[in-house]
Design goal:
The structure is a single chain. This protein is an alpha+beta fold and 220 residues long. It is 20% helix and 25% strand. It is built from four helices and ten strands. Strands 3-4-5-10-7-8 form a six-stranded antiparallel β-sheet, with no helix packed on it. A two-stranded antiparallel sheet has the order 1-2. The chain has a two-stranded antiparallel ribbon with strand order 6-9. A hairpin with a 6-residue loop joins strand 1 and strand 2. Helix 2 (36-42) packs antiparallel against helix 3. The two termini are 35 Å apart.
């Protein structure tokens, strides 16, 4: 009902029941295709997203190519676990199952996370979080359409700046849902009105080539 069928969302009166059902599930992270981290993302449970991703990776990702073993003695590669990881990460970063875009609804606490997720209308949402908190949001509208966005900073004033004109299309909106009209091919910077301009710029992704293998518990 929660995922993938989208019958229960975070505004449903059944949402508390869905959370209780998740908390009392009989076989947590028991198989390599376990949907636990995806369900946790839809339930807004960031800590559970992180813990179940780590648990299933450590338990099942037994091949160095990143694929999983269905059981300990298996010799065949399985892709389910990596696919669940991919979907859980995007669901933790951006969701849109009812026409309202949710930004970072289930980021594990303390995570630095950069990513881009496609949603309805061929629209791409670019998000960065630092230490588990949303730092940057850009919405790249794929078609001319009304856009609805859950306020990424609840209770704070939000501006939406057009990438075409550099001017606000929304100014100091403090509501729970931010609405504006998007034009095809135009990017919109969504920012905390009280944040400095420096805080709202994308931080480049940097790094250096690895010189040794990294491990996550027993896997590498």
């Amino acid at each position: 009902s929660l995922w993938p069928f989208d019958i229960i969302g975070d505004t449903s009166p059944l949402f508390p029941l869905a959370r209780r059902t998740y908390a009392h599930r009989p076989n947590p992270s028991a198989v390599d295709w376990s949907f636990d981290p995806i369900q946790a993302a839809r339930l807004g449970l960031g800590s559970e997203v992180g813990s179940t991703l780590i648990k299933t990776t450590q338990r099942f990702q037994s091949f160095v190519n990143g694929m999983a073993k269905w059981e300990a003695s298996a010799k065949e590669f399985y892709v389910e676990q990596a696919a669940v990881v991919a979907d859980a990460l995007q669901e933790a970063l951006v969701q849109d199952y009812d026409g309202i875009i949710r930004i970072a609804p289930a980021i594990p606490p303390g995570w630095d996370f950069d990513g881009s997720v496609y949603v309805r209308g061929n629209t791409k949402v670019h998000v960065q979080t630092r230490n588990g908190a949303v730092s940057t949001v850009v919405i790249e509208s794929g078609i001319k359409q009304p856009l609805k966005l859950r306020n990424p900073w609840p209770g704070k004033s939000v501006d939406v700046i057009s990438g075409r004109t550099g001017k606000p299309v929304v100014s100091t909106s403090i509501g729970p849902v931010i609405e504006f009209s998007g034009d095809a091919g135009i990017s919109y910077l969504v920012q905390d009105h009280d944040a400095s301009a420096a805080q709202m710029h994308f931080v480049p992704v940097t790094g250096t080539p690895a010189t040794s293998a990294k491990k996550l518990g027993p896997v590498q």
